[in-house]
Amino acid sequence: MAQLVYTEADLLRDHDYARPHVVDGQRLHGGFLADGTYQPPRALVREPALDAWTEALRARGGEVFGADASLLSGLRLPNVAQHRVLLRRGHGQTFWGSLTVTGKIEARGRLLADLPFPGLYRRTA
Predict the structure, then answer these.
(1) Is residue 11 within 8 Å of residue 45, measured between CB atoms?
(2) pTM here?
(3) Percent of the chain beyond pLDDT 90?
(4) Nearest to 35 by CA among 52, 16, 50
(5) Got the DSSP string for 2-65?
(6) What phi and psi values does residue 107 have, to the nearest 5 degrees?
(7) What is the Cβ-side half-sphere exposure of residue 61, based on CA atoms within 13 angstroms?
(8) Alpha-carbon gap, residue 7 to 13, rounded angstroms
């Protein structure tokens, strides 16, 4: 059976990059292996872990679902009455979690709106 439990240190490990990912003098995340393939940060153990978790999910009859914008449509959070029930039963984390999700989405949108847009020019490299 594949490994399904990992330490935090395992999941934060990077590949031994041959060269960093740099564009126009700006260091971006991840890097390139000796054969030139790009590897995102902290993917050394995460990629095999995700494969193992997916295999285990499917072995139990589950299936991975797409994580796209459709997850943000429709009712996905408890309403006020449902939150009251959850809070009375000691499940306050549900309420704070919903605020965290909303806050992260809104903060990312605000960050993107405030970023200076780079000048677009034709590259001749």
Answers:
(1) yes
(2) 0.54
(3) 47
(4) 16
(5) ------HHHHTPPP--SEEEEETTEEEEEEE-TTS-EE-TTHHHHHHHHHHHHHHHHHTT----
(6) -65, -40
(7) 0
(8) 10
